[in-house]
Amino acid sequence: MIHIYGEKMFIFSGQIDLRKESPRLLKTPINAYLPFGMGPRNCVGSNFATIEVKLAFSMILQRYAFTLSPSYFTTHPQHGVQIVLHAL
């Protein structure tokens, strides 16, 4: 069997340091976790994806009415806001 990633691919050698001041994380580029990148060479599909999300959200707003759940009413929700969808 040919191992593309090596025979010990699932064996981790070392510890992961996830502190903010970790030297490994300080070398990470600022835009490393943006889904479409940034700058002049960003993803060509980012505008299309943004329009698709707006279109999907507008279709949901046209077909449903939203009300807050009466069982979970607070000014500082800790686990998100619970809403009830009513078909129009």
UniProtKB/TrEMBL annotation:
InterPro entries for the chain: Cyt_P450, Cyt_P450_CS, Cyt_P450_E_grp-I, Cyt_P450_sf, Cytochrome_P450_Monooxygen
One GO cellular component term: membrane
Ranges annotated as spanning the membrane: none
Any one GO molecular-function label of the UniProt entry: monooxygenase activity
Cofactors demanded by this protein: heme
Keyword annotations of the record: Heme, Iron, Membrane, Metal-binding, Monooxygenase, Oxidoreductase, Transmembrane, Transmembrane helix
Annotated GO biological process: secondary metabolite biosynthetic process
Residues engaged in binding heme: 43
Entry's localization field: Membrane
Primary residence: membrane
Family: Belongs to the cytochrome P450 family.
Protein known as: Cytochrome P450
Organism of origin: Aquilegia coerulea (Rocky mountain columbine)
Taxonomic path: Eukaryota, Viridiplantae, Streptophyta, Embryophyta, Tracheophyta
